[in-house]
Design brief:
The strands form two sheets. This protein has a six-stranded antiparallel β-barrel. It has five helices and twelve strands. With 337 residues, the protein is an alpha+beta fold. The chain has a domain at 152-324: Rod shape-determining protein MreC, domain 1 (Thrombin, subunit H, Beta Barrel). The protein is rod-shaped and about 145 Å long. Strand 1 and strand 2 form a beta hairpin. The protein starts with a helix and ends in a 13-residue tail after the last helix.
Length: 337
């Protein structure tokens, strides 16, 4: 205790004493809290003694915690009390994880959009490749059928068709420059398609066997019975209107070209009978046949030259002629009206 604190303590009960009044003038009560004045008699143990006592207490606590379960409740309480502190300490890490999650989500969204675009492009290419594969198969079938023919042939392509449902005409990309002539028969890998009715230097127009104005001499392959197959102009395909009621015709009979009239070579498939009707009192059968050619499938066909027809110009020569004339390699023509 310092001298000032001593006087203040002894004079505190009686402030009327003259010495105490004088002490108040020299030492204010507020001066008791001034730490710059060192006490005369220091209190408490020294710092070294405190450190030793704390060390002994720590060793005792560690020993008690290791050997007994006395401190388990204290440990549990401290663990529960430390949970908010641990949560606060983990906030920066959790914030980083949330930011990384949103960044990863945005990256995944961008990758998904890019993959969807790639999928659309690949699907478009796949569709084109499917079309090319089907076209290649049709051309191979045409080439295979041309090897079985003794006539000279040329592969052509249909560039347009008539929009009139009652007129079955198509326009080809082959014309007079390739040796195409009026009345030339057309076939595909399955049968007769029709004949050329109009020729221009770079294109030609053909009528199909299903047109109502077209007729082709045929014979039933099973019996050799000959007749004429007319285009029905509708979904029936072909009609055989001049067969007598007692004619031997059955569903499934194959019709082939007979060669009569000299327009179509003999032996080409024309159609297959799918319906035979005989109405009571009628003298003729009502026979319908389905065309053998795939008229509505594919664009490729064969133009057939009969014996004695002018030879087909070489393809390289055709291209040279068109190039010299300033014309495109493949002619385009409008569909006939």
């Amino acid at each position: 205790m310092s001298l000032r604190q001593f006087f203040v303590y002894t004079c505190e009960p009686s402030r009327t004493h003259p010495e105490c009044s004088d002490l108040d003038g020299r030492f204010g009560v507020d001066d008791l809290h001034n730490d710059s004045i060192r006490p005369l008699f220091p209190r408490g143990p020294s710092l070294g003694l405190k450190a030793i006592l704390l060390a002994i207490m720590s060793i005792g606590l560690m020993f008690a915690d290791d050997r007994t379960d006395t401190l388990n409740p204290v440990r549990s309480f401290i663990a529960v009390a430390a949970v908010p502190v641990q949560w606060m300490a983990s906030l920066p890490n959790q914030a980083g994880e949330v930011a990384e999650h949103f960044a990863s989500r945005q990256s995944l969204l961008e990758q998904n959009a890019e993959l969807r675009d790639q999928q659309l492009h690949l699907q478009a290419r796949l569709q084109k490749l499917d079309g090319l594969a089907a076209e290649n198969a049709r051309i191979r079938a045409l080439l295979l059928s041309s090897k079985r023919l003794h006539e000279q042939v040329l592969i052509g392509e249909i560039v347009s068709s008539s929009m009139d449902p009652y007129r079955h005409y198509v326009t080809l990309n082959k014309g007079g420059m390739e040796g195409v002539y009026k009345g030339q028969p057309l076939i595909d890998a399955h049968g007769v398609m029709g004949q050329v009715v109009e020729v221009t230097p770079m294109s030609s127009t053909a009528i199909l066997v299903t047109d109502p104005n077209h007729g082709i001499p045929v014979e039933i392959n099973r019996t050799g019975l000959q007749t004429v197959a007319h285009g029905a102009g509708d979904s029936r395909g072909l009609a055989l209107p001049f067969l007598p009621a007692n004619a031997d015709v059955q569903v499934g009979d194959l019709l082939v070209s007979s060669g009569l009239g000299g327009r179509y070579p003999a032996g080409y498939p024309v159609g297959v009978v799918y319906d035979v009707q005989h109405e009571s009192g009628e003298h003729f059968l009502d026979v319908s046949a389905r065309p053998a050619a795939r008229l509505n499938q594919g664009r490729e066909l064969l133009l057939v030259w009969k014996d004695g027809a002018p030879p087909v110009t070489n393809v390289a020569e055709q291209l040279d002629q068109r190039r010299d004339a300033g014309l495109p390699a493949f002619a385009q023509s409008a569909s006939p009206q």
